[in-house]
Write a structure and sequence with these properties.
Radius of gyration: 38 Å
Low-confidence stretches: 1-6, 15-23, 69-73, 285-292
Helix content: under 10%
Number of helices: 1
Strand content: over 45%
Oligomer: single chain
Strand order of the largest sheet: 1-4-5-6-7-8-9-10
Distance between the termini: 56 Å
């Protein structure tokens, strides 16, 4: 009887062992796929914009004061009071710092808890502007037997506002909850350039031998132009993202670089004036009604942006409770 009881107990123990083996042993916890799925976020930071370029004014042709007849040619010749060429050239070169705030969202996927790829879209709102104001004396104003003055003032402003973009994000997980990533994509921004120019020019011309003033000419000229364009740029960036609350919320910091190329504006500046003719000679000497019949003013700027942004992201999906 005892032998039968012992045999039954051994058989039951073997059955339990076999059943446990089929069950696969104790349950193993599955590590979540951090950074996988949809997310939305808020961001804020600093944009540093650089504006490099120039503002120029050029005369397309010589401006000449003519005598009326050949009678006084030995004494009062046709006189070039302004030579064709560059009248002024001002450099544009400064940086503008301003805060930006934005929203972004995207989707990402991790592979083998190691590699990451994602797509991100964003919008950032803010404005940066550079204002350049200059004044001085025009070039090309040296003429024999004359006193010529050409004072000018010019103003150029360049402004960039509000950026929107999309980018591809490859990355690597240096821990299950820490992601290092790069960014390459396209970004668009509204860029405006404004340029204005004004001058007051005068010329007094004397006879070469008698020192008598025969021409006194004055002119005033002004003009402005604008260009408003949506410019695109290549976006390059790097960043780091870290989970700070379970698998719901992350904090990220990133650096982005954007090169928008050149934006320019130009216009022809026209003006009017008057010429006073002395009567030291007869017949009288005449002069054009304008000292400068027309000049062209142009401004060009190369716009680049470096941005340091930080923000919080919320991930959708199955969360750790």
């Amino acid at each position: 009887m005892k032998k039968k009881l012992i045999g039954s107990l051994l058989s039951f123990a073997s059955y339990l062992t076999f059943t446990a083996a089929l069950a696969g042993g104790p349950e193993v916890a599955v590590e979540p796929e951090y950074f996988s799925g949809f997310y939305i976020g808020v961001t804020g930071g600093l944009h540093v914009a650089t504006f490099d370029g120039s503002s120029t004014v050029d005369a397309p042709e010589d401006v000449v004061i003519h005598t009326e007849t050949h009678t006084q040619k030995p004494y009062v010749r046709d006189t070039t009071v302004l030579s064709a060429g560059n009248l002024l050239n001002n450099d544009i070169g400064s940086s503008s710092y301003d805060g930006y705030a934005g929203l972004h969202g995207g989707i990402g996927k991790t592979y083998n808890h190691r590699w990451y790829t994602g797509i991100d879209a964003f919008g950032e709102w803010g404005t940066q502007q550079d204002d350049e104001n200059n004044s001085g004396t025009l070039n090309n104003l040296t003429v024999a037997h004359s006193t010529i003055n050409g004072n000018y003032s010019s103003a150029t402003s360049v402004k960039i506002s509000n950026t929107f973009g999309v980018d591809f994000k490859p990355g690597i997980l240096i821990s299950p909850t820490t992601l290092l990533y790069g960014k390459v994509g396209a970004v668009w921004a509204d860029i405006k350039i404004h340029n204005s120019f004004s001058t007051t020019a005068s010329a007094k011309i004397d006879t070469p031998f008698r020192g008598k003033e025969v021409v006194n000419s004055n002119g005033n000229f002004s003009g402005q132009s604008d260009n408003d364009d949506t410019k695109s740029a290549l976006l390059l960036g790097v960043g780091c993202e870290q989970y700070i609350y379970k698998d719901w919320i992350t904090f990220d910091v990133e650096y982005n670089y954007e090169d928008y190329g050149h934006i320019s504006t130009s216009t022809d500046v026209e003006g009017g004036g008057s010429a006073t003719i002395s009567r030291h000679f007869y017949p009288p000497v005449t002069a054009d009604n304008t000292l400068i019949s027309a000049v062209n003013t142009q401004a060009t700027a190369h716009v680049k942006v470096s941005a340091i942004m930080a923000g919080f992201n919320f991930y959708f999906g199955t969360h750790l409770i």
